[in-house]
Design brief:
mainly alpha, two-stranded antiparallel ribbon
Length: 160
């Protein structure tokens, strides 16, 4: 069994205690995460909506209106790549998350790969179809939502 190490910036805040034990996450890495996530989601929805609208108009103009029938699923496609590319990038966060001083990691403390980040986004938007599922974070000690648990990721404060 290894000893729990204190959290300091620049280090991975997730520590395993024992071979199969749940990870130890310092309390300061989770302070204010729920409120910050709500603000980050609002910022990201504005950005994704703007990008989707701009892409919609550009494709509509380029195709002389013929693409209007195939463009309705544009928002989910943009959201999929937005989340996948930004979270799997060097900042480990969407622009909204970075602005709110948050980052996403796997439960092992590693950066999240593209596919896992994109699947997390899909699960997030599916969870919005059943809003009570978002309340799961009120009952988990590490403040993870159901879509975080299913994607095996955690949202942490970048600086503590």
């Amino acid at each position: 069994m290894t000893e729990r190490e204190p959290f300091s910036s620049g280090e991975t805040p997730i520590r395993r205690v024992g071979a199969r034990a749940a990870p130890y996450i310092p309390p300061q890495a989770l302070e204010g995460v729920r409120t910050r996530r709500i603000m980050a989601v609002m910022l990201d929805l504005i950005l994704v909506s703007g990008m989707s609208a701009a892409l919609f108009v550009a494709l509509l103009i380029l195709s002389a209106g013929l693409s209007a029938f195939i463009l309705p699923p544009l928002f989910p496609i943009v959201a999929f790549f937005y989340n996948g590319l930004t979270v799997s990038g060097p900042r480990m966060a969407t622009p909204g998350m970075a602005f709110m001083d948050l980052e996403m990691r796997t439960m092992e403390g590693n950066p999240v790969p593209f596919l896992q980040a994109a699947v997390h986004a899909v699960l997030f938007y599916v969870t919005w179809l059943f809003p009570p599922l978002l309340l799961v974070s009120l009952f988990t000690s590490d403040k993870r939502c159901l879509h975080d648990i299913l994607a095996d990721v955690i949202i942490l404060r970048r600086s503590s």
